[in-house]
UniProtKB/TrEMBL annotation:
A Pfam family hit: EndIII_4Fe-2S
Record's protein name: Adenine DNA glycosylase
UniProt gene name: mutY
Chain ranges passing through the membrane: none
Keywords: 4Fe-4S, DNA damage, DNA repair, Glycosidase, Hydrolase, Iron, Iron-sulfur, Metal-binding
Catalysed reaction equations from the record: Hydrolyzes free adenine bases from 7,8-dihydro-8-oxoguanine:adenine mismatched double-stranded DNA, leaving an apurinic site
EC number(s) per entry: 3.2.2.31
Primary enzyme class: hydrolase
GO biological process: base-excision repair; mismatch repair
GO molecular function: 4 iron, 4 sulfur cluster binding; 8-oxo-7,8-dihydroguanine DNA N-glycosylase activity; adenine/guanine mispair binding; metal ion binding; oxidized purine DNA binding; purine-specific mismatch base pair DNA N-glycosylase activity
Length: 300
């Protein structure tokens, strides 16, 4: 049976949200005025499923070393994988290299500003395209991540969390909330910041919230419908094994014998072989003619 709310959906007043945002927003390096659209795009690749604190030092080193798409495109994929370090999901580094190559070759080294052209770039999905259009080019497009979904579910609809992660309805929801003026891009950023720092998943800090009206608070914080979210584990997963194998190769500047990879994960041989096969299939690792292994671009 549908969950009937006692009140109609609420609005989020831009003045309340933006007034708070101006004073409370974090001084993240990719928000500074001299940062280019390409560097913002790099931050969005890195921030996918990765906490801000881990991204900051890697992003700073990365953009100092490869400040433009053409500089990134000219870099060795092996160097990019080394610089990616422990951010996880290293396919993103490879996709970023492909994305840089297309921008340098087809777009005069300038990140496109419209969502449809951004969506055609390698590794750029709906969220990243909108985030770059909004944060780099100040376009009034809805930018919807899990933080924004949660704030809108709570403040507007009175639910503990978003009903689905499909995104279609959420985009319409957030688009309807955006102010119809030059504040729209800041409103998107502020919604995200509120979800990241105040209206957090486990313990919302309602005492610090700038919104004077919140449907979930008014309804007495009804619990989430349906099963809770599963917490992702890392220890013992194929992701961890891939990370261990990549660590070995990052530490070398020439191909290594298979035995050097074998000792990196001894507890489950099948899992290790599966992880190595997946790294080869993803194009992150190559096998030389004499049977040794290297990061892609390192097999001389
Ligand atoms: S009042 Fe609490 S639950 Fe509502 S939006 Fe603010 S922090 Fe989130």
């Amino acid at each position: 049976m549908a969950h009937i709310l006692p009140y109609p959906p609420m609005n989020i007043p831009p003045t309340e949200l933006l007034g708070w945002y101006e004073g409370a927003r974090r001084d993240l390096p990719w928000r500074r005025p001299d940062v280019t659209p390409w560097q913002i795009l790099v931050s969005e690749f890195m921030l996918q499923q990765t906490p801000v604190a881990r991204v900051v030092p890697v992003w700073q080193d990365w953009v100092a070393r490869w400040p433009t798409p053409s500089a990134t495109a000219a870099a060795s994929p092996a160097d990019l994988l080394r610089a990616w370090g422990k951010l996880g999901y290293p396919r993103r580094a490879k996709r970023l290299h492909e994305c840089a190559t297309v921008i340098a070759r087809d777009h005069d080294d300038v990140v496109p500003h419209d969502v449809d052209t951004l969506l055609a770039l390698p590794g750029v999905g709906g969220y990243t395209a909108r985030a770059v259009a909004c944060f780099a080019y100040r376009q009034p497009v809805p930018v919807v991540d899990t933080n924004v979904r949660r704030v809108v579910a709570r403040a507007v609809h009175g639910r503990a969390d978003a009903v689905s992660s499909s995104g279609v309805r959420d985009h319409a929801d957030v688009a309807a909330l955006l102010p119809d003026d030059e504040r729209a891009h800041r409103f998107s950023a502020a919604l995200m910041e509120l979800g990241a720092t105040v209206c957090t998943a486990r313990s919302p800090r309602c005492g610090l919230c700038p919104l004077t009206e919140c449907a979930w608070r008014r309804a007495g914080y009804p619990p989430a419908l349906g099963p809770g979210r599963k917490v992702q584990t890392y220890a013992g997963t194929d992701r961890q094994v891939r990370g261990c194998l990549l660590d070995v190769l990052r530490g070398k500047d020439c191909p290594v014998a298979k035995a050097e990879l074998d000792v990196a994960w001894l507890s489950d041989i099948q899992q290790r072989e599966r992880a190595l096969d997946s790294l080869l299939a993803d194009g992150l690792v190559t096998r030389t003619a004499d049977g040794r292994y290297a990061l892609v671009g390192d097999a001389h």
